[in-house]
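User: Could you go from structure to sequence for me? I need the amino acid at each position, not a summary. Structure tokens:
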């Protein structure tokens, strides 16, 4: 299981996604360019003390991501407000990559076309969307639950 962010706009969301990945043992792919300078120092600052625990893979662009070794296994599952199916009725597999689009504009047509599934998270009437990392946490939790891949460690706090 992997978590991928397509050209994120907000550094705090990348930091929160890295913390999510670190805590759940899931690698995070960031597909550049980002809407902010993605420096090592910036990642460390945004991820706080979880940056060192996170398994981060940066990709120079969409093509680089598609051709990477990380994409050799599993399906590409895009989460989008334009999704065809609700995420909770989908059968996740261990090798899936859960992909989230840019906060400001979502994912372009070529990203939609590359996905093996396009899913949405149902919301209450009148609600437009969730925060990127909140959406990622909801989706990743369901995928890990289905694949029995949650970490087994006890709480440490």
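Assistant: Here is the amino acid at each position, in order:
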């Amino acid at each position: 299981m992997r978590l991928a962010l397509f050209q994120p706009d907000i550094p705090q969301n990348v930091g929160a996604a890295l913390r999510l990945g670190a805590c759940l043992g899931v690698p995070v792919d960031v597909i550049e360019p980002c809407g902010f300078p993605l420096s090592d120092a910036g990642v460390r600052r945004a991820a706080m003390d979880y940056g060192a625990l996170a398994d981060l893979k940066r990709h120079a662009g969409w093509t680089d991501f598609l051709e990477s070794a990380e994409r050799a296994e599993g399906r590409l599952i895009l989460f989008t407000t334009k999704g065809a199916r609700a995420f909770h009725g989908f059968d996740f597999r261990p090798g899936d990559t859960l992909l989230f689009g840019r906060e400001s504009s979502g994912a372009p047509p070529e990203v939609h076309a590359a996905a093996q599934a396009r899913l949405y998270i149902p919301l209450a009437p009148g609600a437009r969307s969730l925060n990127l990392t909140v959406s990622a946490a909801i989706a990743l939790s369901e995928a890990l639950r289905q694949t029995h891949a949650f970490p087994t460690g006890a709480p440490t706090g």
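One structural detail worth keeping in mind: The mean pLDDT is 92.
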